[in-house]
Each structure stands twice: as C-alpha cells, then as structure tokens.
Amino acid sequence: MSAESLERRTRNYLSSSVPQIQDHGGNFQIEDVDEESGEITVAIGGACSGCGIAPMTMRAIERRLPEEVDEVTRVTVRRTSGPRAAVMPDKTEEMETMEEYQDYEPPF
Description:
With 108 residues, this protein is an alpha+beta fold. The protein has helices spanning 3-17, 19-23, 54-68, 92-97, and strands at 26-34, 39-46, 74-79. It has a three-stranded mixed β-sheet.
C-alpha cells in the first residue's frame, strides 16, 4: 500500500464520515503519512480552532480512523490556529460530567 493511497483513503474517510467538520466551517488537512508505521497526523482548523468541543471530535477521529482504515495504526490530531483564531476553552471535561452528555458520541 503506498503512502498516497493510504492518504487518499484517510481523506475519503474524513470527508465522508466526519462531514460536520466542514459543515460547521472547519477544515482538515492530512499533515503526515508514515507508510511503514501506519501513523497519520491530521490537523483540524477553521471553526474547529475555536470550538470548545473540538477535543471530543479529535478523540473520536483518533479512535475510529484506525478501525476504519486497515493500515492506520495510530492517529494524532491537532488543532491549527491562524492569526484570528479565538480558541474557546475546552468544554470536554465539563460536558462529560453533565447528565445530558453522559452517553454522547459524535455522530460519526
């Protein structure tokens, strides 16, 4: 399997299975593909840079991408920020203690 093919499969997965990133004004970029180890680095940005629940999305991508793309062994997701990014505080821990979010899973 070539790195290009692995990158394409990763991009296809993110585009089709995580459409809310783009639907909500965010974007993703595959920054690195290590063909031999199966490690992928993905950056999310745009509206994701300032989103308080982006960490939940990031964790879901890190957990689910290796389940969906066979050759992927490890995923690192990071937020990018531009000069105008106003990053909201991470709401993940607070949301995890709220009853209405106890069974929350991102919808992908």
